[in-house]
Every structure is written in C-alpha cells, then in structure tokens.
Design the sequence.
C-alpha cells in the first residue's frame, strides 16, 4: 500500500462519515457511565481560552467545549456533520471550518486542541506529521485533551487483512460498506511514542473501551 492508496483510504473514510452523519448519533452512542467520566475529566482539564476541536462531528463534545472556551474553532471534513453540529450547539462563540485535516493549516494559534476518536483514524504513515501539525496549532504553553478507544475494541471490528495500515470495514444501516483507518493505540506505547516526539502525556482508562489523555510540549531546557 503506497501513499496513493493511503490517500484513497482517507478519501473513502471521509465519504463514510459524510454518508453516516445523520445516523451517527444513534449508532455511536457512548454509554452513559463512560461519558460521565469523560465529561468530568474534561471539566477538570478546563479547556479555556481559544480552543480548537479537530474532527468535531455532530457536536457530542462541541457543546461542552463551548461552555469553557472564549472562542471555539470546530473543524470537520464533512459538511453534513458540521450542519448537524451547528444546529445542535448554536452558540455565538463557535466558528466552523470545513476542511480535510491532512490538508488544513491553522490560521492562528490556540490555547487548547481537542479531538475525540480521531487519532485512531490517523494512519501510521501520518502519525508524526499529525502531531507536528498539532504542535503548530498551539501557543507556546498550549494543551491537548484527546479521547480514543482501547485495543480491546479490536474484537468488535471487521478487519481487512493484508493492509499496511490497519483498516476496518464499516457498514451503514443501508448496508453500504466503506473502509476506514483504525489504529488502536495502547496508552503506554502511545505515551512513549509521544515522549519521543517531544510531548508529555498523561493517560487514564475509562472501562474496557476508552482512554483519555492530556498532553503538552516538553519544555526546552
């Protein structure tokens, strides 16, 4: 699988989430107990100031971020997701951007970057570049909060074999099938990789399915 195939997979992943937008909330509901713990952690983190949300989706987290932020920039590649998010949140301090995150450059620097179940959709070939992008989005003392799924989720996915990037098959309620990147990170291994890239990250698990992490750039001595 070369770079062209990675680009093709990412395009198909975008198409999948565009097609899935109107059924996303009913097919990807976080259980109430896990959501409560994740919300508590996010509130303790307190994403104040100018906040950037990557892959904002239908707004499951946008509304909470908007309660803390002075200004929230919410980015997604799907206009369908953004439309649902805008209707759900409807706050004056939220600015929406439709953009492919692998092609977009932030026009300003932010105090906080947030993303939920997005890192697992970043192919391994783009991992370092993605974290360099996150660093470029942040002010000197900027912070990151992110949520994703644990390796135990692998047993609940339909994997496509013999791919250089981990790829799963996803189906809509209509039966239409798509491919999507799915990299399930072990928190300890991910923390080590981020440390190598100059990040300090702290991880906590939530049940068998989720983890959340806070991160910031390692100070330069």
Sequence:
């Amino acid at each position: 699988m070369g770079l062209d195939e990675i680009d093709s997979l990412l395009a198909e992943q975008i198409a999948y989430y565009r097609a899935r937008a109107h059924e996303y909330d009913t097919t990807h509901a976080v259980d109430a107990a896990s959501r409560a713990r994740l919300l508590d952690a996010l509130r303790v983190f307190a994403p104040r100031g100018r906040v950037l949300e990557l892959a904002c989706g239908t707004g499951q987290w946008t509304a909470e971020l908007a309660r803390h932020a002075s200004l929230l920039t919410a980015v997604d590649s799907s206009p369908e997701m953004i439309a649902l998010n805008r209707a759900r949140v409807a706050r004056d301090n939220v600015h929406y951007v439709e953009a492919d995150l692998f092609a977009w450059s932030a026009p300003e620097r932010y105090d906080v970057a947030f993303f939920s179940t997005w890192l697992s959709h970043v192919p391994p070939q783009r991992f370092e570049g993605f974290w360099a992008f996150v660093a470029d989005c942040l002010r000197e003392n900027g912070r990151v909060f992110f949520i994703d799924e644990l390796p135990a989720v692998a047993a609940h996915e339909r994997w496509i074999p013999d791919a250089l990037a981990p790829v799963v098959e996803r189906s809509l309620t209509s039966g239409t099938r798509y491919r999507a990147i799915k990299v399930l990170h072990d928190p300890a291994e991910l923390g080590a990789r981020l440390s190598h890239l100059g990040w300090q990250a702290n991880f906590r698990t939530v049940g068998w399915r989720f983890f959340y992490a806070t991160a910031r750039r390692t100070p330069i001595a």
